[in-house]
Amino acid sequence: MALGSLLLLLSAFLHASWNALAKSARDKESYLFITMFFSGFLSLASVLVVFPPEPFSHPEVFWFAVASGVFEGLYLFSLAKTLKSSSLGVSYAIMRGGAMVVVWLISLSFLGEVATVGEISGAALVLLGIVAMNAEAFLRVIKKSSVTVHPSQLLSVWPFLSAVFIAGYHVCYHQALDHGAEPRSLFTLSVFVSLPLVFWGVATPRIQNTLATLKNETSSVLATSVISTLSFVIFLYGLKASAPGFAISLRNSSIFFALVFSFFLKENLSRAQIMGATVIASGAILLSIS
């Protein structure tokens, strides 16, 4: 297997890994804030120490970076809510697969792209998988059933919102890179812009809760910071060594890794949910390579 493919698969594995670690955190909002706080400084160090700093080459890049940071902050805010209300296996597939569909729709509506049969088929598979994963919850909403169920089986709006925010920062990243942004500098600025929004999501008293999480889950949150930063940096190297469509399709293999972590987290996924996640991943791959 080529080096680029290995890097992309490793990036997908690491991304699913840090989401799984966040899922197991007690206070997910403060956990994600600390994670991104340290991730920002790690990425800044990579720019200033490991790599020579490169200024943004186009004035618009700065504003695309700010916009990506806003979307990333909203994503992390909604991710914390998602991990509290849904299982990792279900929510991760919806977030990543749904984001692919939203990016595709934005590209069709505003970036002048033309839909292909493969893209339409991929989008249809993603939507079909989402419906399959949430079929029982949809039926409860329709029937207004009063049956008591586990929270992970309830229909939650948060993973769908997360998908929209993921799409938002991906589009902004893409536009910034098209205008000549240096990727590591772009990511660093985006992370620091996102931090106030993530901190706003922490329950009051925010400072006390954040310090408590740092004290009680120090090793876990630091590991998550390193893993999340590596997942992005490794993806950049994989993207350099591979064609963009192929890179994104391999990156979406993280949906399958999330299902594996869901098993280790002892989440009780039904056959329909597992099959739905598989259909979503297949549709996302088809959508990205078409």
Automatic annotation (TrEMBL):
<feature type="transmembrane region" description="Helical">
    <location>
        <begin position="246"/>
        <end position="265"/>
    </location>
</feature>
<keyword id="KW-0812">Transmembrane</keyword>
<protein>
    <recommendedName>
        <fullName>EamA domain-containing protein</fullName>
    </recommendedName>
</protein>
<feature type="transmembrane region" description="Helical">
    <location>
        <begin position="123"/>
        <end position="142"/>
    </location>
</feature>
<feature type="signal peptide">
    <location>
        <begin position="1"/>
        <end position="22"/>
    </location>
</feature>
<dbReference type="Pfam" id="PF00892">
    <property type="entry name" value="EamA"/>
</dbReference>
<feature type="domain" description="EamA">
    <location>
        <begin position="158"/>
        <end position="288"/>
    </location>
</feature>
<dbReference type="InterPro" id="IPR037185">
    <property type="entry name" value="EmrE-like"/>
</dbReference>
<feature type="transmembrane region" description="Helical">
    <location>
        <begin position="154"/>
        <end position="173"/>
    </location>
</feature>
<keyword id="KW-0732">Signal</keyword>
<keyword id="KW-1133">Transmembrane helix</keyword>
<feature type="transmembrane region" description="Helical">
    <location>
        <begin position="222"/>
        <end position="239"/>
    </location>
</feature>
<feature type="transmembrane region" description="Helical">
    <location>
        <begin position="32"/>
        <end position="50"/>
    </location>
</feature>
<feature type="transmembrane region" description="Helical">
    <location>
        <begin position="92"/>
        <end position="111"/>
    </location>
</feature>
<feature type="domain" description="EamA">
    <location>
        <begin position="3"/>
        <end position="134"/>
    </location>
</feature>
<feature type="transmembrane region" description="Helical">
    <location>
        <begin position="62"/>
        <end position="80"/>
    </location>
</feature>
<feature type="transmembrane region" description="Helical">
    <location>
        <begin position="185"/>
        <end position="202"/>
    </location>
</feature>
<dbReference type="InterPro" id="IPR000620">
    <property type="entry name" value="EamA_dom"/>
</dbReference>
<keyword id="KW-0472">Membrane</keyword>
<dbReference type="GO" id="GO:0016020">
    <property type="term" value="C:membrane"/>
</dbReference>
